[in-house]
Write a structure and sequence with these properties.
InterPro entries: Teicoplanin_resist-assoc, VanZ-like. Keywords: Membrane, Transmembrane, Transmembrane helix. This is VanZ family protein. Helices cover about 70% and strands about 0% of the residues. By secondary structure, it is mainly α. It has one domain. It starts with a helix and ends in a 13-residue tail after the last helix. Helix 2 crosses helix 3 and helix 3 crosses helix 6.
Length: about 180
């Protein structure tokens, strides 16, 4: 049983490490894409009315609207998978995991939007916040529950194949032996 916990811990630790590294890399790319100054002759005013920017893009045609919607949906979508992966929990309740991921993703998106207020050429857009959160929610729902179930099945299969009895003791190594200490007369 202890060996099984150790193996589960090693798998979770490896996944957590990979998740943290991939999360840091993704956030660095997102920061570079969203927080770099733009050299533009004209800047649209900040959009703080939900769906107003999307309606304006739809008025221009389906092409610009689709480009913007897809861009905003996919920008933070990997966080829907990377945040739970960085958490490293294989047995988290699905609704709690979804809620925690959505709140963390929304806060990251809000932070990016607020940081953009100080960057030349960038403006705050509440539609980006909504679409970013929707994108990471969809990614989480599409990947995380099935991925966790597959990992749990894989670990259960490994546990079922684990050696029993003497073979298990041989796999763990010999028991430690301590020399006898003489008792004083």
């Amino acid at each position: 049983m202890q060996r099984q916990r150790s193996r589960d811990g090693n798998v979770a630790s490896g996944l957590r490490t990979a998740g943290v590294l991939l999360l840091a890399a993704h956030l660095a790319v997102v920061g570079w894409l969203t927080l770099r100054p733009l050299d533009v002759p004209w800047i649209a005013p900040a959009n703080i009315r939900p769906m107003a920017g999307i309606r304006a893009d739809l008025a221009l045609g389906w092409g610009p609207a689709a480009r913007r919607i897809v861009r905003d949906l996919t920008l933070l979508a990997p966080l829907g998978v990377l945040l739970p992966l960085a958490g490293g929990r294989l047995s988290a309740p699905p609704l709690f995991s979804l809620a925690r991921t959505m709140v963390a993703g929304a806060m990251i998106s809000l932070g990016i939007e607020l940081l953009q207020t100080g960057v030349p050429g960038q403006v705050v857009d509440v539609d980006s916040l909504i679409l970013n959160t929707a994108g990471l929610t969809l990614a989480h729902l599409a990947v995380v529950p099935a991925g966790r179930a597959a990992l749990r099945r894989r670990l259960a299969l490994r546990a079922h194949r684990a050696p029993e009895g003497r073979d298990q003791e041989a796999a763990q190594g010999p028991s430690p032996r301590f020399p006898r200490v003489p008792i004083a007369p």
